[in-house]
Amino acid sequence: MLTAKPIFSYRPYWARRFGVAPVLPMSRPEMDQLGWDSCDIILVTGDAYVDHPSFGMAVIGRVLEAQGFRVGIIAQPDWTRVDDFLALGRPNLFFGVTAGNMDSMVNRYTADRKRRSDDAYTPGGTGGRRPDRSVLVYAQRCRQACADVPIVIGGIEASLRRSVHYDYWSDKVRRSVLLDAKADLLVYGNGERQVVEIAHRLAAGEPVANLDDIRGTALLRKGVPEGWSEIDSTSIDTPGRVDTRPDPYAEASAVPRAEAGGAERPLQFQRRPRIDRTRSVIRMPSYEALRDDPVLYAHASRVLHLETNPGNARALVQRHGERDVWLNPPAIPLTSAELDRVFELPYTRQPHPLYRGARIPAYEMIRFSVNIMRGCFGGCTFCSITEHEGRIIQNRSEDSIVREIETIRDTVPGFTGVISDVGGPTANMYRLACKSADIEAACRRPSCVYPGICSNLNTSHAPLIQLYRRLRALPGIKKVLVASGLRYDLAVQSPQYVKELVTHHVGGYLKIAPEHTESGPLTKMMKPGMDAYYRFKELFDKYSAAAGKEQYLIPYFIAAHPGTTDQDMLQLALWLKRNGFRADQVQTFLPSPMASATAMYHSGRNPLRSVRRNSETVAIPKGLRVRRLHKAFLRYHDPDNWPLLRDALKRMGRADLIGDGKRHLVPAWQPRGTAGTAEGARRFRTQHTGLPVDPPAPGGRARNASRPKKQRTRRSRPIRP
């Protein structure tokens, strides 16, 4: 079993003598009040600074502070000039750069590539306060500000772009963000363990170029180091069973018998030399090869996902021109004791006083919620949670969760006794894990619950039931809700859990995500079939009635996912109508970097299986017309969609579904004043390719406007998006 040095066992840095900051400083006057002449580490983020354990920069900042380092925050700087990046001076050790809690492109643009007008992580919800591809732009500005200071990039945006990746917004395959950002190191996944080691080693005088052996990081190299074995990626593109071990004699070579008539010789077996996995690296196809070959891209995506288990993952290397991007194996997950300390650091649990009480929507959403775990072993192909946080669940202890709720009760303004959510990426994966540590360490399956629940997975919900009961009993706590998404295929394994949930922790509505009803899309999503949904709904309705409550399930669905045909969407629309659902908000598939479904979208191949030239092709709903149609099927009840749906139904030979009866999907008539808002095709534009300028903010220039040439400073150079 792999172990790692506990993150709170390092000898504190000398600056610990300054004590704990009431809030991490964002200005020179705040530094002066703390008695600081400089910051050891400066964190640059695209989010407003909220000192709360749900905000990444706050977590990393407080963790580093606990190590004794002086940490400053530059939040949502003006990226059009260097000045904001010098606001706290030159950091002694490094800049840490993140786009924020969300990928900046997902934050800024819808799945239809329309610009969003708001930003939930900005005071007042104002849009346009961060650039496209923020981590890249911020890192370049940090390099301009202090050319000799190491730059470490991280967060979800950097994580998902650590290797060659398809970029939906430019419709291109882009190289690793490491090169364009001009960063020294990239931290991927949850970054506490990596960042702590980086800080202490830099503080000890090690040059950043020597930090090439930290798990959960990526860096640039020239060639493979001496003593390492290089393996071609095509030789390992086959997942193994989780319950068998390799036979060391399975590929033994034998000396053949002498030809007929000659003397026989005994068979001789030679064991193939074993390769040290800790000193082996898989050579991925180069950036240039993946850029030009979608099939090869699907292969590379598959190999990358096969090497994500910290227990058996090997290093990966990928050529970019004359340099290699080197990906070390994933970091070791935090223990419960480590995670407890991370969540119990001295956060104020409020936005920085600089914002003077301005509403930050993302903060308001999680203000009275508690995160009880990290990670997800679901492996849904469209989701980035597993790719970023890992598939091994990292759990907090009951006591730590209780202490956080007591802190909320006693210190957070406006608390009324209701905890809005007790959950995580998936609310009911708390304390679920593989029954065998050895099997878990050897496993290469992308999901523990698809195509069915693994026999090695412990599905007991008893710890979660116990936690719920303990939280409900706390003085001053009126209600504890579960608002995070949950796996209903896991929940039905424990009817007692469903009873507990439905009786005490549902506030009238419970969100779940079947994502689709048809087997074609579901197999490409790695989601369970509708049988599990019906079993869960039966239990949900049964226990709601027993509790005397009128409660409803709110299912979520995805339009235009790879593997989805027009017929699939029609069947989903008919299911929605039969069951009386009218979705006000629908989700269209958005190809996020690194996701398996994104590899399908780009390549037309299925990376869930071995990829070859003649392997399975996947139906891909591409183009504005088909994506609008699939979205319209989910909103069959919207009159604006009826003309589009009528045309599609006629084309599909299903004109029988047009009419005014209950069995019809859309009426033949059109209400006056409708169907005039449907968008036509338009060229996609970003801030860097002619996006219209936002109105000026009060007292300032337009938020997306570039500074006029006459006002440009000589220190500011154009940023490559």
Write a short abstract of this structure.
With 721 residues, this protein is an alpha/beta fold. The protein is built from 23 helices and 25 strands.
Explain what you see.
The chain is α/β, with parallel strands linked by helices and 721 residues long. Among the domains are: 14-213, Response regulator (Rossmann fold, 3-Layer(aba) Sandwich); 343-572 and 590-619, pyruvate-formate lyase- activating enzyme. It has 23 helices and 25 strands. It has a 10-stranded mixed sheet, sandwiched between helices. Strand 13 (315-320) and strand 14 (323-327) form a beta hairpin. Helix 2 packs across helix 7. The radius of gyration is 27 Å and the shape is globular.
- Radius of gyration over C-alpha positions, nearest whole angstrom: 27 Å
Total helices: the number is: 23
Which architecture of the domain at 343-572 and 590-619 does the CATH hierarchy give at level 2? Alpha-Beta Horseshoe
Contiguous runs where pLDDT drops below 50 for at least 5 residues: 238-262, 677-690, 692-721
CATH class type of the domain at 343-572 and 590-619 = Alpha Beta
In CATH, the topology of the domain at 343-572 and 590-619 is named pyruvate-formate lyase- activating enzyme
Shape field: globular
Terminal residue distance = 42 Å
